[in-house]
Known about the structure:
The structure holds two protein chains of two kinds. Chain A is built from eleven helices and 13 strands.
Amino acid sequence: xxxxxxxxxxxxxxxxxxxxxxxxxxxxxxxxxxxxxxxxxxxxxxxxxxxxxxxxxxxxxxxxxxxxxxxxxxxxxxxxxxxxxxxxxxxxxxxxxxxxxxxxxxxxxxxxxxxxxxxxxxxxxxxxxxxxxxxxxxxxxxxxxxxxxxxxxxxxxxxxxxxxxxxxxxxxxxxxxxxxxxxxxxxxxxxxxxxxxxxxxxxxxxxxxxxxxxxxxxxxxxxxxxxxxxxxxxxxxxxxxxxxxxxxxxxxxxxxxxxxxxxxxxxxxxxxxxxxxxxxxxxxxxxxxxxxxxxxxxxxxxxxxxxxxxxxxxxxxxxxxxxxxx
Amino acid sequence: xxxxxxxxxxxxxxxxxxxxxxxxxxxxxxxxxxxxxxxxxxxxxxxxxxxxxxxxxxxxxxxxxxxxxxxxxxxxxxxxxxxxxxxxxxxxxxxxxxxxxxxxxxxxxxxxxxxxxxxxxxxxxxxxxxxxxxxxxxxxxxxxxxxxxxxxxxxxxxxxxxxxxxxxxxxxxxxxxxxxxxxxxxxxxxxxxxxxx
Lengths: 326, 197
């Protein structure tokens, strides 16, 4: 659901503070983090959705990569994952098998234990994971510690939502399809490992609320401002064209509505470009806030680790929460 | 011109349907039921170089695309779109000023009775198309015109063939409905069940 509707609902849920809780609901971070002892904290998250592509195996991979990403966004290592499945009785169980195989493939790649799961009968297939990760408390990378002077690095190109919309409409060709699938099923594992090696201030992953929605949560939690340089933000090939054509998913409009007044665009930023910044991403990349002097090192190491589309897209400046795009 | 009722359709279907229609038609009107689809259609128009005009019809949005920048017809009522959703409605194709092949006198009586009966019909026809000497009914035949006016008011499209009006030199005598070309007429005949009279 959209960020506005969600925060409305969450307002009515009592927040019980507990000193063991290092990251909770209040900062709208990617996962919950609970301190187990001086050396270990437990990261937990759950995410599932309906198919975004026709191929069940690839859908399984994408849904799993997306769920696992929440652990990586906190800088953690995945310990275990459990399948969450909704499946119609009228569909062949072979399809379910393929979805779970795709998921298992990514869980294995993450080096995690597939610990079980739960299946219910549903009108349409749904799949995702409940994931647990571990991290040393002092290594935790929340979205609340970005500092003025940081550089913002994005590890995957934007436009996944627009491309999926074009695919759904039968407009995108097989090349575009391959491209977007490749991005979605890529784990953020390498990115997080490099980020931990270099040492950064804050991180979040880019999913349903789009780049600007997740960046907004980061600047709000960190009490800073962000300045993005549009010309440096990478888009998937074809995404701008399709956005201009009006293949903009409803989620992008909801994200835009939610951030009304919080984001200011320079005069030259076209509407389609704005749409891509609001575009909801499925299994998007990490947005990393790194001290300026470490930026080059981070980008070099990401490149070496195969995260070759990682780009510095802007910076953090002092001031109350706001985002500027020029 | 093509009208698309895209209400109730999920993104990106309104855009896809409209894009396909624009590949075949110069003018397209699309009806959608939400603002996002409306914005997306405006983007499509801009991208493809069409002028777009948005009208709100009840709670729905009607987006008119025209290549030349001139607005597409005056206003399309919601009822017409419902027609396009309900493809069961019939198009009556009238290609003579009399009904049937016998005595002309009888044919004149029959056509009058026929048009009158159409006014009593439910559901009303989608459109009535007049061709060849049929155009005399929309120009000269006062009793028929009276009933056609009732039908037009009920949302039935009354169409006279422009070439035929020219041929019979009736182009400035049209009393009811609009003038159209072969393309539009054939498209209508192709899109709905047709009753030829």
